[in-house]
Structure formats: structure tokens, C-alpha cells
Amino acid sequence: MMVGDELVALAEAVARAGHAGQFRRDGVTPYAVHPEAVARRVGEGPQPDAEAVAVAWLHDVIEDTPVTADELQAKGFPPAVVAAVQTLTKTDGAPYDDYLEAVAASPLARKVKIADMLSNLADGPTDRQIVKYAKGLLRLVG
Fold first, then answer.
1. Cβ–Cβ contacts within 10 Å for residue 85, how many?
2. 64 given a catalytic annotation
3. pLDDT tens-digit profile of 90-141?
4. Of these residues, 36, 49, 51, 63, which one is catalytic?
5. Assigned CATH for 4-141
């Protein structure tokens, strides 16, 4: 079973490969800068949680790349990591409030989503996104 640095390194490699050729909303910044920033936020502190950092790297791969949960499992990611990434994956038509409830129910997904929202707020969001992330943060930290 993978742990620590090996787990984080594999998550980073999968995220960078999956997001290759994708860009942030400015159309210039490589998309991988975002999961890297989220992973850095989650990994702050004296004893970083390797599973949380791995989830941070992977939080958008199922939603935004061809990578599937089955592929993550086949690569050897722990079930808790795969489950958290699946929880963080938005599905078409699902109400945002339902999504937030599912995230709030998973401590691992919750930790990563808070870091994700903070990262998005620091990256030139629109007024609409600011309202959305504020609502989400209030639900997840409250």
C-alpha cells in the first residue's frame, strides 16, 4: 500500500498528465497550477496528511480529464483517496447544495474543498464565483 511521498508523487504525476494541455480561465496559465496550489494549502503544517495532499492533486481529474475512478484504483490509490475524489467530482444536474452536503459529510473531501475554494478565490474569480464560494465556505466551515 502506498503511503507518504510515494502517494503524493503518484497523485501529482496523474494530475499533471491528466491536465496536460488544459489552462486556467485566463487561457494562459497551465491548469496544473491549480491542483498544485490546492495541494500546497492542504499540505501546510508540521505533519501534512499525505492522503489529503493526494486528493488535492487529484480533485479535478475525474471531472475534467479522461481519468476514471477505476483507473485511480488500478494505480493503487487507497480507497479513501478515490472515494474523496469521487465526492469532489460534480455531476451534471446535481444541485450545488446537495454537492456541498456530500462534501461536508467526508472529512477528507471537506478539507480539500475548503482549500480548493480558497485557491479559486485567490485566482481572479467573477462576482458570481465569489458568491458561490462564499456560500460554500460558510457551509463547510460553519
1. 27
2. yes
3. 988 889 999 999 999 999 999 999 999 999 999 889 999 999 999 999 999 9
4. 63
5. 1.10.3210.10
